[in-house]
Amino acid sequence: MMLDLGPFSNENFDPKKWINSACQTRHPQDSLDNHLVDLEMKLQMMSEEIAASLDEQSAASLLRVPRASRDVIRLRDDSLSLRSAISGILQKIEKAEGSAAESIAALSKVDSVKQRMEAAYETLQDAAGLTQLSSTVEDVFASGDLPRAAETLGNMRHCLSAVGEVAEFANIRKQLEVLEDRLDAMVQPRLTDALFYRKVDVAQDLRGILIRIGRFKSLESHYTKVHLKPIKQLWEDFDSRQRVNKLANEKNEMERLPSSAEFHSSVPTLPFSSWLPRFYDELLLYLEQEWKWCMVAFQEDYKTLVPKLLTETMAAIGSSFVSRINLAIGDAVPETKALAKGILDILSGDMPKGIKIQTKHLEALIELHNMTGTFARNIQHLFSEIEIRVLKDTLKAAYFPYESFKQRYGQMERAILSSEIANVDLRGAVIRGVGAQGVELSETVRRMEESIPQVILLLETAVERCISFTGGSEAHELILALDDIMLQYISTLQETLKSLRAVCGVDLSSDGVSKKDIDKKDGSQSVRRADSTSNEEEWSIVQGALQILTVADSLTSRSSVFEASLRATLARLSTSLSVSVFGSSLDQNQSHSDYENGEPSLGGRAALDVAAVRLIDVPEKARKLFNLLNQSKDPRFHALPIASQRVAAFVDTVNELVYDVLISKVRQRLSDVSRLPIWSSVEEHSTFALPTFSAYPQSYVTSVGEYLLTLPQQLEPLAEGVSSYDSNNDEAQFFATEWMFKVAEGATALYMEQLRGIQYITDRGAQQLSVDIEYLSNVLSALSMPIPPVLATYQSCLSTPREQLKDLLKSDQGNQLDLPTANLVCKMRQVNLDF
């Protein structure tokens, strides 16, 4: 039976578990006792063998220790001797290194002298060769071998560069320049023939000649010159057609006899907007053909030659292009078409009065610009292999004819919007006869309300025009124009409000005193005015005035929505233009100052849009624009800052007007309350026990109460209108309730002001005034308004008998009564308060 001693070395060895496992391996016929005895005997024998082996190995180890100690001592001695030998070697190396450095320095000087001698030798050879070449170059030219002549001139230039600025060779240097010009002139006619007849091999040889003498610019210039002529013929074809049509029409006019019934129709003139796409198609086809041919003929230079051809073409026809665009824009409007003028002429002031820039002008310009944009995208696709900076210059040349228009975009947009705002029907209200004031007020308010979406639509259209025409590069100028136009519109609304004050009867007189104040001074004037205006018309004026609140609410909400939309547009521009111009998007948490020191760069080939092409070359304009775009990310930013303030001022003016209208009837009824004779009337003696005052409130306070109680019915249409506009019924109800409370509080304040003006009141007057105040308090309670403490004090002090008034104040001690008001009532009732 073999024993596995592996489990005994395990840290988690369990004797019981091992014994149980060993017992399970016994033969079924063996008894457990015998098996355990055998197992014990084997373990004992195994332990004895292990002990014997340990003793034997320990003895052997003790014998090897002295030998190992001797080996260690010997190794230490060897290492000491080796260190000493190495130290000696290092000293010898240091001595050798010092002498070697001196030798190397001497060798370096010798090598420098050798190199200078070799250079001098080569220079002498070049000088000798230069003299020889100068003497034989005329023979080479006489042979007519242009490649050999180019090689000779190239060697001469190489020799001159090797010789340097030596006075003896100055004449040869001038001779070389003359010879290069001469060879260039000899190459040009052959190059013209090769380019015209598409001779690839000849063109390649001639290119090699020009490259050999350093005249690649001559190749580029001559290539452009050869191909510019047919392209200019394509451009001049428009003028040729116009002249032919003009001559044909003049001929028809001359052949037309006055007495003849025959009618000669005029030859239709082709508009520039219809001809321009054809020109672009033909030009694009021509460039595609040249691109394919140059890929074979000039494999190293086709990525430069063909884009250069387009750039030079646009430079050659640029002024004519601008003129044609200007005239094409003028043809969009009959007034400028008849004068053969355009937007530039209007902006320069060289036009009769009354001729203004119209939307059709700018729409025609954008239509032409879109045609050029399509051509630019096709060019970008055709020149997809060229360097991005060359592509940028090419696209800039394609858009160049519109640059003068884009620089004046803000001025054009401001003129168009100003003209369109002036055409909006916002004529002020006119004072009409009795019975027509409410209709005039309603019509004026309707015009104001309908003008708001019209104006916002005009502004939104202007934003679309800016993106379409400039790609957003003129966003800063657009913002300034929109702000100015909003100011113009709001100023017109303010003037209309002034005319409404006259219609509503709350306008200011010439000396600045309001009519309501005049009515306060002269009660008879109020009565006459009240009599001249029917109750129905008064309510129609009130209803019309309330509708002005809808105008203010509409202007506020729509201008806020437009400004939010404008901020979103600026945010989109910030993302797209920052990628195009700076190569990465502006971080929302990063201020614009981080970009002020960075120069605009190209963000990628796909990002070359119309705005990026403009902004890359005008870093100051780019920084100014991105400053605006970065500020627009701040939630506190106002895209139209001045207009936002004017909108708030307009709302305040509307609220003031509406309040004046709503409170005007109350003001009229209460204008003479302090001077009513009943306050100072004396009790009449009678033989019968009759009440000394009326048990009913007087007409002035009942008319005010009825007006206040009827006012909620007038505010309901307003609440419904605001609710349908904002889809927020709770807010609309709060809005109407707020106005109800405002008018009621104003009426209460006016009433208490009149009460303070009563100088003396008898007991009979006090009892009557107490009834009046109680009625007004009931009206306020019906409107869910708290009774002001001052008014409650008047009620308490006036309803108390005169002889008990002093005791009332003494017992209250200011807990429920307003003491200054109570003292005033005592003074009115001539009660002595000396306690």
TrEMBL record:
* GO BP term, example: intracellular protein transport
The record, for Pfam families, names: COG7
Q: List, alphabetically, the InterPro entries matched.
A: COG7
Q: What is its main location?
A: Golgi
Q: Which UniProt keywords apply?
A: Golgi apparatus, Membrane, Protein transport, Transport
- The keyword Metal-binding belongs to this UniProt entry's keyword annotation: no
The protein here is known as: Conserved oligomeric Golgi complex subunit 7
Q: Which organism is it from?
A: Quillaja saponaria (Soap bark tree)
> What lineage does the source organism belong to?
Eukaryota, Viridiplantae, Streptophyta, Embryophyta, Tracheophyta
